[in-house]
Amino acid sequence: MIRSDFPVFSRYPDLVYLDSTASAQKPRMVIDGMKDFMEGKYANIHRGAYALSEMAEMTYELSRQKACAIIGARETSEIFYTYNATYGMNLIAETLRLSGEVTSWDVILTSAIEHHANLVPWFLCASQSDSEVKVTHLKNGSFDYEGFEEAMTEQVKVVTVTGASNVTGEIIDLERIHAMILRKFPWEKKPYFIVDATQLVPHMTLDVVSLDIDFLVFTGHKVMTDTGLWVVYGKKSLLQKFTPSFGGGGAINHVSHDGFIPAGLPSRWEPGTPHIIGAASLLYALEYIESIGGYEKIEEVERDLVEYVWEKLEHFAPLHEGKVQLIGGGREIPRIGVFSFYTPEIHVSDLAESFAEKNIAVRSGHHCAEPLHEENAIPASIRISLYIYNTREDIDRFFEVFEQECSEL
Ligand SMILES: Cc1ncc(COP(=O)(O)O)c(C=O)c1O
Question: What's the pTM value of the predicted model, to 2 decimals?
Protein backbone atom coordinates (compact mmCIF):
# COMPACT_ATOMS: atom_id res chain seq x y z
CA MET A 1 0.00 0.00 0.00
CA ILE A 2 1.59 3.24 -1.19
CA ARG A 3 0.16 5.30 1.69
CA SER A 4 2.22 3.40 4.26
CA ASP A 5 5.40 4.58 2.50
CA PHE A 6 4.66 8.10 3.76
CA PRO A 7 5.54 8.60 7.45
CA VAL A 8 3.28 11.64 7.78
CA PHE A 9 0.26 9.33 7.66
CA SER A 10 1.57 7.16 10.53
CA ARG A 11 2.10 10.27 12.59
CA TYR A 12 -1.36 11.67 11.73
CA PRO A 13 -3.50 8.64 10.85
CA ASP A 14 -6.59 10.78 10.57
CA LEU A 15 -5.07 13.24 8.09
CA VAL A 16 -6.71 13.66 4.70
CA TYR A 17 -4.09 15.44 2.64
CA LEU A 18 -5.62 17.00 -0.47
CA ASP A 19 -3.01 19.67 -1.14
CA SER A 20 -0.32 17.93 -3.19
CA THR A 21 -0.52 20.51 -5.95
CA ALA A 22 0.91 23.00 -3.46
CA SER A 23 3.51 20.50 -2.27
CA ALA A 24 3.69 16.72 -2.14
CA GLN A 25 4.36 14.69 1.01
CA LYS A 26 7.66 12.82 1.21
CA PRO A 27 8.04 9.03 1.14
CA ARG A 28 10.30 7.22 3.60
CA MET A 29 12.77 6.53 0.76
CA VAL A 30 13.33 10.26 0.25
CA ILE A 31 13.55 11.05 3.97
CA ASP A 32 15.94 8.15 4.67
CA GLY A 33 17.91 8.85 1.51
CA MET A 34 18.44 12.47 2.52
CA LYS A 35 19.47 11.44 6.04
CA ASP A 36 21.89 8.86 4.68
CA PHE A 37 23.26 11.40 2.20
CA MET A 38 23.82 14.01 4.91
CA GLU A 39 25.36 11.47 7.29
CA GLY A 40 27.70 9.75 4.92
CA LYS A 41 27.87 11.18 1.41
CA TYR A 42 27.78 14.90 1.90
CA ALA A 43 30.41 17.49 0.94
CA ASN A 44 30.53 20.30 -1.58
CA ILE A 45 30.73 19.11 -5.17
CA HIS A 46 32.94 20.60 -7.91
CA ARG A 47 36.34 19.02 -8.08
CA GLY A 48 36.75 17.82 -4.48
CA ALA A 49 39.40 15.09 -4.74
CA TYR A 50 38.31 13.24 -1.61
CA ALA A 51 35.78 10.42 -1.37
CA LEU A 52 32.93 12.34 0.27
CA SER A 53 32.99 15.05 -2.38
CA GLU A 54 33.15 12.43 -5.11
CA MET A 55 30.16 10.62 -3.65
CA ALA A 56 28.20 13.86 -3.39
CA GLU A 57 29.05 14.76 -6.96
CA MET A 58 28.11 11.31 -8.20
CA THR A 59 24.71 11.56 -6.48
CA TYR A 60 24.20 15.04 -7.92
CA GLU A 61 24.94 13.83 -11.44
CA LEU A 62 22.79 10.70 -11.06
CA SER A 63 19.95 13.00 -10.07
CA ARG A 64 20.51 15.02 -13.22
CA GLN A 65 20.46 11.83 -15.32
CA LYS A 66 17.08 10.82 -13.88
CA ALA A 67 15.65 14.33 -14.35
CA CYS A 68 16.88 14.20 -17.94
CA ALA A 69 15.19 10.84 -18.56
CA ILE A 70 11.72 11.74 -17.27
CA ILE A 71 11.35 14.68 -19.63
CA GLY A 72 12.93 12.82 -22.56
CA ALA A 73 15.98 15.08 -22.89
CA ARG A 74 18.82 13.40 -24.74
CA GLU A 75 21.77 14.90 -22.88
CA THR A 76 22.36 15.72 -19.21
CA SER A 77 24.18 18.86 -20.31
CA GLU A 78 20.74 20.25 -21.19
CA ILE A 79 19.55 20.09 -17.57
CA PHE A 80 20.47 22.54 -14.86
CA TYR A 81 19.19 23.21 -11.36
CA THR A 82 18.05 26.52 -9.90
CA TYR A 83 16.36 27.55 -6.69
CA ASN A 84 12.71 28.23 -7.32
CA ALA A 85 10.02 28.96 -9.84
CA THR A 86 10.52 32.66 -9.85
CA TYR A 87 14.21 32.27 -10.46
CA GLY A 88 13.91 29.61 -13.18
CA MET A 89 11.28 31.29 -15.34
CA ASN A 90 12.73 34.77 -14.74
CA LEU A 91 16.11 33.49 -15.81
CA ILE A 92 14.71 32.28 -19.12
CA ALA A 93 12.77 35.50 -19.70
CA GLU A 94 15.74 37.63 -18.73
CA THR A 95 18.09 35.61 -20.92
CA LEU A 96 15.88 36.03 -23.98
CA ARG A 97 15.54 39.76 -23.31
CA LEU A 98 19.25 40.38 -22.71
CA SER A 99 20.19 38.35 -25.77
CA GLY A 100 17.96 40.57 -27.92
CA GLU A 101 15.66 37.65 -28.78
CA VAL A 102 12.66 39.58 -27.44
CA THR A 103 12.59 43.25 -28.44
CA SER A 104 10.15 46.08 -29.28
CA TRP A 105 6.89 45.01 -30.95
CA ASP A 106 7.51 41.35 -30.24
CA VAL A 107 4.73 39.34 -28.66
CA ILE A 108 5.01 36.79 -25.86
CA LEU A 109 2.02 34.50 -26.18
CA THR A 110 0.51 32.75 -23.18
CA SER A 111 -2.93 32.04 -21.75
CA ALA A 112 -5.13 32.89 -18.78
CA ILE A 113 -4.75 29.37 -17.41
CA GLU A 114 -1.19 30.07 -16.27
CA HIS A 115 0.26 30.21 -12.78
CA HIS A 116 1.73 33.62 -11.92
CA ALA A 117 5.19 32.03 -12.21
CA ASN A 118 4.63 31.86 -15.96
CA LEU A 119 3.11 35.33 -16.25
CA VAL A 120 4.95 37.79 -14.04
CA PRO A 121 8.45 37.08 -15.46
CA TRP A 122 7.06 37.75 -18.94
CA PHE A 123 5.33 40.98 -17.88
CA LEU A 124 8.68 42.08 -16.47
CA CYS A 125 10.45 41.05 -19.66
CA ALA A 126 7.88 42.94 -21.75
CA SER A 127 8.10 46.12 -19.69
CA GLN A 128 11.87 46.13 -20.05
CA SER A 129 11.93 45.34 -23.77
CA ASP A 130 8.87 47.21 -25.08
CA SER A 131 7.36 43.95 -26.13
CA GLU A 132 3.85 42.77 -25.31
CA VAL A 133 2.43 39.83 -23.39
CA LYS A 134 -0.70 38.48 -25.03
CA VAL A 135 -2.78 36.42 -22.59
CA THR A 136 -5.46 34.49 -24.46
CA HIS A 137 -8.88 33.93 -22.92
CA LEU A 138 -10.31 30.63 -21.84
CA LYS A 139 -13.34 29.03 -23.49
CA ASN A 140 -15.94 27.65 -21.10
CA GLY A 141 -13.24 27.59 -18.44
CA SER A 142 -10.82 25.52 -20.53
CA PHE A 143 -7.82 26.27 -22.72
CA ASP A 144 -9.02 27.72 -26.01
CA TYR A 145 -6.91 26.09 -28.71
CA GLU A 146 -8.60 27.91 -31.61
CA GLY A 147 -8.18 31.27 -29.87
CA PHE A 148 -4.56 30.45 -29.12
CA GLU A 149 -3.84 29.57 -32.74
CA GLU A 150 -5.51 32.77 -33.92
CA ALA A 151 -3.27 34.75 -31.58
CA MET A 152 -0.17 33.25 -33.20
CA THR A 153 0.66 36.23 -35.36
CA GLU A 154 4.03 36.77 -36.96
CA GLN A 155 5.05 39.09 -34.07
CA VAL A 156 5.02 36.15 -31.68
CA LYS A 157 8.55 35.38 -30.47
CA VAL A 158 7.72 33.26 -27.43
CA VAL A 159 4.96 30.73 -26.83
CA THR A 160 4.87 29.79 -23.18
CA VAL A 161 2.29 27.45 -21.67
CA THR A 162 1.74 25.28 -18.66
CA GLY A 163 1.62 21.50 -19.02
CA ALA A 164 -1.32 21.27 -16.60
CA SER A 165 -3.37 23.78 -14.67
CA ASN A 166 -2.84 23.96 -10.91
CA VAL A 167 -6.48 25.08 -10.52
CA THR A 168 -8.64 23.14 -12.95
CA GLY A 169 -6.27 20.20 -13.43
CA GLU A 170 -6.63 20.50 -17.20
CA ILE A 171 -3.77 18.87 -19.10
CA ILE A 172 -2.73 21.06 -21.99
CA ASP A 173 -2.27 19.29 -25.32
CA LEU A 174 1.35 20.22 -25.98
CA GLU A 175 1.43 18.19 -29.20
CA ARG A 176 -1.43 20.28 -30.54
CA ILE A 177 0.39 23.49 -29.66
CA HIS A 178 3.57 22.19 -31.22
CA ALA A 179 1.62 21.32 -34.39
CA MET A 180 0.13 24.85 -34.44
CA ILE A 181 3.59 26.39 -34.24
CA LEU A 182 4.74 24.27 -37.18
CA ARG A 183 1.65 25.25 -39.16
CA LYS A 184 1.80 28.96 -38.43
CA PHE A 185 5.50 29.79 -38.71
CA PRO A 186 8.18 29.10 -41.27
CA TRP A 187 11.06 27.20 -39.65
CA GLU A 188 13.40 30.20 -39.44
CA LYS A 189 10.72 32.34 -37.72
CA LYS A 190 9.64 29.70 -35.23
CA PRO A 191 9.00 31.25 -31.78
CA TYR A 192 10.59 29.85 -28.65
CA PHE A 193 8.38 27.11 -27.24
CA ILE A 194 8.52 27.15 -23.44
CA VAL A 195 6.68 24.81 -21.08
CA ASP A 196 5.99 25.17 -17.37
CA ALA A 197 5.85 21.46 -16.54
CA THR A 198 5.55 22.02 -12.79
CA GLN A 199 2.16 20.32 -12.52
CA LEU A 200 2.83 17.73 -15.20
CA VAL A 201 6.01 16.06 -14.00
CA PRO A 202 4.54 14.79 -10.69
CA HIS A 203 1.98 12.88 -12.77
CA MET A 204 3.50 11.94 -16.11
CA THR A 205 6.62 11.90 -18.24
CA LEU A 206 6.98 13.82 -21.48
CA ASP A 207 9.28 14.09 -24.47
CA VAL A 208 10.90 17.47 -24.97
CA VAL A 209 12.55 16.32 -28.18
CA SER A 210 9.51 15.20 -30.12
CA LEU A 211 7.64 18.31 -28.92
CA ASP A 212 10.61 20.43 -29.95
CA ILE A 213 10.47 22.34 -26.66
CA ASP A 214 13.15 25.02 -26.29
CA PHE A 215 12.96 25.48 -22.53
CA LEU A 216 11.06 23.61 -19.85
CA VAL A 217 10.93 23.97 -16.09
CA PHE A 218 9.57 21.92 -13.22
CA THR A 219 9.87 22.06 -9.48
CA GLY A 220 11.14 19.27 -7.25
CA HIS A 221 8.99 19.54 -4.15
CA LYS A 222 5.80 18.67 -6.04
CA VAL A 223 7.54 15.41 -7.04
CA MET A 224 8.20 14.65 -3.35
CA THR A 225 11.68 16.20 -3.04
CA ASP A 226 13.05 18.84 -0.71
CA THR A 227 11.92 22.41 -1.44
CA GLY A 228 14.07 24.93 -3.31
CA LEU A 229 14.98 22.85 -6.35
CA TRP A 230 13.84 23.80 -9.81
CA VAL A 231 14.86 21.85 -12.85
CA VAL A 232 15.42 23.74 -16.08
CA TYR A 233 15.78 22.09 -19.48
CA GLY A 234 17.21 24.11 -22.31
CA LYS A 235 18.14 22.91 -25.79
CA LYS A 236 21.89 22.45 -25.92
CA SER A 237 22.28 24.87 -28.85
CA LEU A 238 20.46 27.58 -26.83
CA LEU A 239 22.32 27.01 -23.58
CA GLN A 240 25.52 27.30 -25.60
CA LYS A 241 24.39 30.35 -27.54
CA PHE A 242 23.12 32.50 -24.64
CA THR A 243 25.18 34.06 -21.89
CA PRO A 244 23.77 33.46 -18.41
CA SER A 245 22.99 36.69 -16.54
CA PHE A 246 24.71 35.34 -13.44
CA GLY A 247 28.16 33.87 -13.03
CA GLY A 248 30.67 32.95 -10.36
CA GLY A 249 32.44 29.96 -8.88
CA GLY A 250 31.54 26.60 -10.38
CA ALA A 251 30.40 28.24 -13.62
CA ILE A 252 33.83 29.12 -15.01
CA ASN A 253 36.85 27.39 -16.51
CA HIS A 254 39.27 30.21 -15.82
CA VAL A 255 39.28 33.67 -14.25
CA SER A 256 42.04 36.23 -14.79
CA HIS A 257 42.52 39.90 -13.96
CA ASP A 258 40.75 40.70 -17.22
CA GLY A 259 37.79 38.41 -17.30
CA PHE A 260 36.73 34.78 -17.36
CA ILE A 261 36.16 31.80 -19.57
CA PRO A 262 32.80 30.15 -18.83
CA ALA A 263 32.57 26.48 -17.95
CA GLY A 264 30.98 23.99 -20.30
CA LEU A 265 27.36 22.88 -20.08
CA PRO A 266 25.51 22.67 -17.80
CA SER A 267 27.86 24.10 -15.11
CA ARG A 268 27.92 27.56 -16.67
CA TRP A 269 24.24 27.86 -15.73
CA GLU A 270 24.79 26.76 -12.12
CA PRO A 271 26.97 29.41 -10.47
CA GLY A 272 27.81 28.93 -6.80
CA THR A 273 27.11 25.98 -4.57
CA PRO A 274 23.90 24.36 -5.79
CA HIS A 275 21.18 22.75 -3.68
CA ILE A 276 23.13 19.50 -3.41
CA ILE A 277 20.81 17.87 -0.88
CA GLY A 278 17.80 18.94 -2.93
CA ALA A 279 19.31 17.32 -6.01
CA ALA A 280 19.95 14.13 -4.02
CA SER A 281 16.32 14.17 -2.86
CA LEU A 282 15.16 14.32 -6.49
CA LEU A 283 17.21 11.21 -7.23
CA TYR A 284 15.57 9.39 -4.30
CA ALA A 285 12.09 10.60 -5.27
CA LEU A 286 12.49 9.37 -8.85
CA GLU A 287 13.90 6.05 -7.57
CA TYR A 288 10.87 5.81 -5.31
CA ILE A 289 8.55 6.29 -8.30
CA GLU A 290 10.42 3.48 -10.08
CA SER A 291 10.10 1.25 -7.01
CA ILE A 292 6.28 1.47 -6.98
CA GLY A 293 5.96 0.68 -10.68
CA GLY A 294 6.89 3.94 -12.36
CA TYR A 295 4.69 6.63 -13.82
CA GLU A 296 2.28 3.94 -15.06
CA LYS A 297 1.44 3.23 -11.43
CA ILE A 298 0.93 6.93 -10.68
CA GLU A 299 -1.42 7.21 -13.64
CA GLU A 300 -3.32 4.09 -12.62
CA VAL A 301 -3.86 5.27 -9.02
CA GLU A 302 -4.84 8.75 -10.13
CA ARG A 303 -7.18 7.60 -12.87
CA ASP A 304 -9.14 5.66 -10.28
CA LEU A 305 -9.26 8.62 -7.88
CA VAL A 306 -10.32 11.08 -10.58
CA GLU A 307 -13.03 8.69 -11.75
CA TYR A 308 -14.21 8.38 -8.15
CA VAL A 309 -14.46 12.18 -7.76
CA TRP A 310 -16.63 12.27 -10.90
CA GLU A 311 -18.86 9.56 -9.44
CA LYS A 312 -19.19 11.57 -6.23
CA LEU A 313 -19.96 14.74 -8.19
CA GLU A 314 -22.77 12.99 -10.04
CA HIS A 315 -24.56 12.61 -6.71
CA PHE A 316 -23.27 15.75 -5.01
CA ALA A 317 -26.49 17.65 -4.42
CA PRO A 318 -24.96 21.14 -3.75
CA LEU A 319 -23.45 21.10 -7.25
CA HIS A 320 -26.77 20.34 -8.89
CA GLU A 321 -28.63 22.83 -6.69
CA GLY A 322 -26.22 25.57 -7.83
CA LYS A 323 -24.71 26.09 -4.37
CA VAL A 324 -21.34 24.96 -5.66
CA GLN A 325 -19.65 25.57 -8.98
CA LEU A 326 -16.90 23.36 -10.43
CA ILE A 327 -14.22 25.52 -12.05
CA GLY A 328 -13.02 24.62 -15.54
CA GLY A 329 -14.14 21.94 -17.93
CA GLY A 330 -15.96 18.72 -17.15
CA ARG A 331 -15.24 15.06 -17.81
CA GLU A 332 -14.41 15.79 -21.42
CA ILE A 333 -11.08 17.45 -20.58
CA PRO A 334 -8.02 15.36 -19.76
CA ARG A 335 -6.92 16.20 -16.23
CA ILE A 336 -4.54 15.49 -13.40
CA GLY A 337 -6.17 14.89 -10.02
CA VAL A 338 -7.07 18.52 -9.32
CA PHE A 339 -10.57 19.96 -8.81
CA SER A 340 -11.50 23.47 -7.68
CA PHE A 341 -14.86 24.71 -6.52
CA TYR A 342 -16.52 28.02 -5.87
CA THR A 343 -19.22 28.53 -3.29
CA PRO A 344 -20.89 31.95 -3.66
CA GLU A 345 -22.50 31.68 -0.22
CA ILE A 346 -19.49 30.64 1.86
CA HIS A 347 -16.16 32.43 1.91
CA VAL A 348 -13.52 29.97 0.72
CA SER A 349 -11.27 30.70 3.72
CA ASP A 350 -14.11 29.83 6.12
CA LEU A 351 -14.71 26.68 4.16
CA ALA A 352 -11.02 25.75 4.28
CA GLU A 353 -11.08 26.25 8.06
CA SER A 354 -14.07 23.95 8.40
CA PHE A 355 -12.16 21.28 6.50
CA ALA A 356 -9.06 21.90 8.63
CA GLU A 357 -11.11 21.36 11.80
CA LYS A 358 -11.92 17.89 10.46
CA ASN A 359 -8.26 17.24 9.63
CA ILE A 360 -8.75 17.66 5.90
CA ALA A 361 -6.04 19.72 4.21
CA VAL A 362 -7.33 21.67 1.20
CA ARG A 363 -6.27 25.03 -0.20
CA SER A 364 -8.32 28.16 -0.70
CA GLY A 365 -7.58 31.40 -2.54
CA HIS A 366 -6.63 32.20 -6.11
CA HIS A 367 -3.77 29.67 -6.14
CA CYS A 368 -1.45 32.16 -7.87
CA ALA A 369 -3.75 32.11 -10.88
CA GLU A 370 -5.71 35.35 -10.71
CA PRO A 371 -6.37 35.70 -14.46
CA LEU A 372 -7.96 32.23 -14.47
CA HIS A 373 -10.28 33.25 -11.61
CA GLU A 374 -11.07 36.53 -13.35
CA GLU A 375 -12.08 34.62 -16.47
CA ASN A 376 -14.50 32.62 -14.37
CA ALA A 377 -15.74 35.83 -12.73
CA ILE A 378 -14.95 34.52 -9.26
CA PRO A 379 -12.54 35.88 -6.65
CA ALA A 380 -11.19 32.60 -5.31
CA SER A 381 -11.83 28.89 -5.09
CA ILE A 382 -11.32 25.88 -2.89
CA ARG A 383 -9.06 23.23 -4.36
CA ILE A 384 -8.48 19.55 -3.75
CA SER A 385 -5.48 17.88 -5.31
CA LEU A 386 -4.85 14.16 -5.31
CA TYR A 387 -1.67 12.16 -5.40
CA ILE A 388 -0.51 8.56 -5.10
CA TYR A 389 -1.04 8.32 -1.34
CA ASN A 390 -4.70 9.36 -1.49
CA THR A 391 -7.54 6.89 -1.22
CA ARG A 392 -11.23 6.74 -2.03
CA GLU A 393 -11.88 7.17 1.73
CA ASP A 394 -10.11 10.57 1.56
CA ILE A 395 -12.51 11.62 -1.16
CA ASP A 396 -15.50 10.33 0.84
CA ARG A 397 -14.42 12.36 3.87
CA PHE A 398 -13.98 15.49 1.76
CA PHE A 399 -17.44 15.25 0.21
CA GLU A 400 -19.07 14.39 3.52
CA VAL A 401 -17.84 17.63 5.09
CA PHE A 402 -18.47 19.66 1.92
CA GLU A 403 -22.07 18.44 1.80
CA GLN A 404 -22.58 19.25 5.50
CA GLU A 405 -21.24 22.77 5.06
CA CYS A 406 -23.45 23.38 2.04
CA SER A 407 -26.55 21.89 3.64
CA GLU A 408 -26.60 24.79 6.11
CA LEU A 409 -27.01 27.32 3.33
C1 LIG B 1 1.85 25.51 -12.76
C2 LIG B 1 2.79 26.03 -11.71
N3 LIG B 1 3.90 26.68 -12.09
C4 LIG B 1 4.77 27.18 -11.18
C5 LIG B 1 4.57 27.02 -9.83
C6 LIG B 1 5.53 27.58 -8.86
O7 LIG B 1 6.24 26.56 -8.23
P8 LIG B 1 6.95 26.83 -6.84
O9 LIG B 1 5.89 27.11 -5.84
O10 LIG B 1 7.71 25.58 -6.58
O11 LIG B 1 7.85 28.00 -6.96
C12 LIG B 1 3.42 26.35 -9.39
C13 LIG B 1 3.14 26.19 -7.94
O14 LIG B 1 2.08 25.82 -7.53
C15 LIG B 1 2.52 25.84 -10.35
O16 LIG B 1 1.42 25.20 -9.97
Answer: 0.97
